[in-house]
Here is the input.
Amino acid sequence: MPKRDDITSVMVIGSGPIIIGQACEFDYSGTQACRVLKAEGLRVILVNSNPATIMTDPEFADATYVEPITPEFVEKVIAKERPDALLPTLGGQTALNAAIALHERGVLEKYGVEMIGASFEAIHRGENRELFNGIVEKVGGEVARSFICHTLDDCEKAVAELGYPVVVRPSFTMGGTGSGIAYDEGDLVRIAGAGLAASPTTEVLIEESIIGWKEYELEVMRDKADNVVIICSIENLDPMGVHTGDSITVAPAMTLTDREYQHLRDLAIGIIREVGVDTGGCNIQYAVNPADGRVIVIEMNPRVSRSSALASKATGFPIAKIAAKVAIGYTLDEIPNDITTREDGQSTPAAFEPTLDYVVVKVPRFAFEKFPGADPVLTTHMKSVGEAMAIGRNFTEALQKALRSLEKKDAVFDWEKEWVDLDKAALLREIRTPHDGRLKKVMDAIRAGATPEEVFEATGIDPWFVDQLMLINEVAADVTAAPELTPDLLRRAKRHGFSDHQIGKIRGMTADVVRGVRHALGIRPVYKTVDTCAAEFAAATPYHYSSYDEETEVEPRERPAVIILGSGPNRIGQGIEFDYSCVHASLALSESKGGGGYETVMVNCNPETVSTDYDTSDRLYFEPLTLEDVLEVVHAERQAGPVAGVICQLGGQTPLGLAQALKDNGVTIVGTSPEAIHLAEERGAFGRVLHEAGLPAPKHGTATSFADAQEIAAEIGYPVLVRPSYVLGGRGMEIVYDDEALEGYIQRATEISPEHPVLVDRFIDDAVEIDVDALYDGDELFLGGVMEHIEEAGIHSGDSSCALPPITLGDAEIERIREATEAIARGVGVRGLLNIQFALGSDVLYVLEANPRASRTVPFVSKATATPLAKAAARVMMGESIASLRAGGVLPAEGDGGTLPPDQPIAVKEAVMPFNRFRTPDGRQVDTVLGPEMKSTGEVMGLDADFGSAFAKAQAGAFGPLPLPTKEGGARVFVSMANRDKRTMIFPIKVLADHGFEILATQGTAEALRRNGVRATVVRKHWEGEGPRGEKTTVQLILDGEVDLIVNTPHGTGSGSSVRVDGYEIRTAAVMANVPCITTVQGLGAAVQGIEALERGDIGVRSLQDWARTGG
Here is the structure.
């Protein structure tokens, strides 16, 4: 069946901001789909609120709406664009839930829009527990015994039947939100209560516990002609009880017999037929009881999922691309497989199931260090923020490569200490509970003499995997015991994935020495190809992985290559925004993609991203970003042809950290030199640059002990900002208000030493923070954009909302910013991108810090000003000038981001926080107050002609819409302010009262308002408890849903004693009840403007292409 001819335009819904459980794998699938649909001649309309994605670049769709993904806004887009069809299966649960809401409200019917990819009925059958369970039983499968519950009473009755422990899962949520394992009644009330609140249909499933069983998933695809292919089988190393996103996973499945695998395959085919997914992919999860082989079907996602991205990267089979083609009517046998396309155009069809002749391992990356109180135990509620994947010829090699891809010192196995220090019994106890880093402890237990049976009994990890770990340990023992490193021994260690660093630690030498010995012996990796068919057919795409095998498959080339280092696994502070810049550099420099005259080579290990898509660059190496691995890739590419250089400045801190060592090893680094990067990061040297340019920086000093720090603080004056040197994402930064808090900070800063001092800066209170992204080519500066933060300085720039163009800065200030930026760019020696943070306080422009690299705001600025900054930067790094880029049409012919026209739309960026994911071990929320340490996982953008409307859109996209006073039963605002903010809050609160909001306030705040003529109802503070007549406290009111907006500024941030007055409980309740909570006065002013814009009711939607054509 060829392409349907009744569809001419398709609307694709993206997944919105990156949150835990829904990361950039949906950017990858959405980008692929938009490309395919456009190539098929369809008009593509995209709705996605996340500016950091590649898919929201104007060239990927015909009409790109960076608008909130709420039914109201999506309906406005449908009304304006009138698409024929809606494809909701590529944007995760966000897109699916939006599509379901539009269907249920009759919007799709009203405008005659057909849902393709998966029908509403199929989605309903896949997501609704009772229907799905019926289907599994019909095809001869088994499901866990369970009960659907709508109240806590129902839950207790269910437990009486099943017995503890039970698993609680809410319906229609993503990444295991609200789910958990209840071991007793207290757990049940807590988890099921939260689950009922988290589910849009107030429904939870209570099911028998299958903890400790083996977990598998299959990635399946089906078309209209009933062709079904199994793309990939994935096995979880961690048994049931840990969310699959938090497990180490392996593809293909290792421990299934052929008979068991065929049984799972038959079930999958039966289920996808019965559910009726006939135009796309889905993912089915199973549990297998290791004792008797009983198989249970856990669940199915009738959409492209996190595992689909992994399966795509693991097999080379582009799931999202093929799902999009199947959705518009093609069948699998009609779609060619790109990877095996020959020169005569012939290829294997997509109906061919991929075969793997290698092993793939994915390891999650966590961010518990960002949330000090959070409980690090892993459960069914997903907590990881990113993942790394590695490919090897065997499991041991792939596992060790994946562990070193995480870039965490304590993730890799380490045999430095002798086994005598290890306590076997204590280690076996410790590995019973799954936590981040458990695998290393399992290895320690093996070293302490634990038997495979003891390890299996403690962890439930399959004996086959335990045996592989024992094999790694045997190799390490051989390396330790050998009198010298013989070529055979070294090659054997490398074949099992040992890095030079690990071997060096065992033998007591440096990694450089091991590398020297290895090269002298001629032991180097070769590069194999991912080709979907285990080399049965010739492969056309150079998608490589390293292995210590015999022959290499890297083809020679004529054209010079540019090697781009990606950003590695996502984490808080280094996410998809950096991947965006890497992808743009690749597209801008690649001859085959219509860019400059190079072949681009991408090196990265993150399976979720667009950069690791096999057709983004001319060559892709799926390798860890460590010095050893990158040097080997450079060597292999030099063997293949000329190498123009390596780009390190676009992928965030990971590649930046390698720049100097690569240069020391004779590798050409293009763009800003490693010395210049060091100059900007090293405080003393950077201070001299500022001094020469005559620019003030806040007073600062470096301390290596509490006495030093106290002396500096006394001289500068409190409050001070303290932080370790050399960090990204504000790791370990705090604002400190007194000596006591300072001493506490120094005690906690364990790694403080003369080599790693602590920086003490004057903290500029009440200053406006400004972020600048600029390009510099050695003689001309192009100001990309000047962003004004809505919150005052002191909140990490990645967490605060900001506006572009700046809403309160005049031309004179922008001119000062331009001069300062140019002086720093020249003084540091930048070639390419530069990001500077300024603070403007009492009319003095301070320089907070400068980073000579791509920053996380590059995509936001590029979208807001319609200028491809990252593409321009890549070309400047390769030696082109800004003047030539203006002439060539890459940059605007005149003007830049500092001279935007008056009718330029206002863009507001708002950060999205993961607080609902983290709790302390006793189940309390982690505090949501923001500080100088970055905590957000993603961002959204609101774009409109005026600030109020843009801010309202950004809020709707991030946290849910701002309230309106016309709500039935009236709307209430609760206000509680720190004394220093009481003066400034009166006017905005008065405006809200005039609009008809009822104002609730605590005693002190209410009095201040009353004196200024604003009526306010006094409510009881949390610590006062309920009143004599049952008057509720603030926290109870919020939890009961009786408050619509909360304004609460903290009294003194930091971890001193003075903080925890009432704010923590109020802000926590706000997260639980999902009520917008504003923690700064500036944010309050912005919210008032947003509410006024909403009340006028004239907020419309407009595509980026439309803004670019006509301006405001």
